[in-house]
Amino acid sequence: MGATAVTTAPTTGHVGVNVTDLDRSVAFYRAALGLEVLNESHETGRRFAFLGHDGTLLITLWEQSEGRFPTGLPGLHHLAFRVPDMAAVRRAEQALRELGATFLHEGVVAHGEGAGSGGVFFTDPDGIRLEIYAPSGAEDRPAPSGTAPTCGFF
Fold this sequence. Notes:
The chain is α+β, with helices and mostly antiparallel strands. It has 2 domains: 8-65, 2,3-Dihydroxybiphenyl 1,2-Dioxygenase, domain 1 (Roll); 77-154, 2,3-Dihydroxybiphenyl 1,2-Dioxygenase, domain 1, CATH 3.10.180. It has helices spanning 22-33, 86-99; strands at 15-19, 36-41, 48-53, 56-63, 79-82, 102-103, 109-110, 118-123, 129-134. Strands 5, 6, 7, 8 and 9 form a 5-stranded mixed beta sheet that branches. A 4-stranded mixed beta sheet has the order 1-4-3-2, with helices on one face. Pfam families: Glyoxalase (PF00903).
């Protein structure tokens, strides 16, 4: 083979997520992440919403699934969203508490023992594991997984 299809490092363009209830998920992601609806369809059998920030697409929600996300099967582990500082993590944590989100660790935790980065770990209404983190400011927070990455074991 030998040939490479991409000559520069790719970046994530957006993430597509299947959901069971589009309206519920749009409300959740808007409140939790401060996203805006960029485009949407309410056509029966083809409902979707494109969510982003400042006109940049980040998440596409597709209403085409049933049940809860099976975290025990191969596939998506979690989605992580970086915010500029711990104050933004705390604001997100408060919004998530008001939404009644399920937290996978109690409050803000470090990414590992001695790490400055950290955040909150939670699930969306369909059980998809999510993380909102800052690159610093969690030095005084617990590390639930010890030296192993917190974001890998929740």
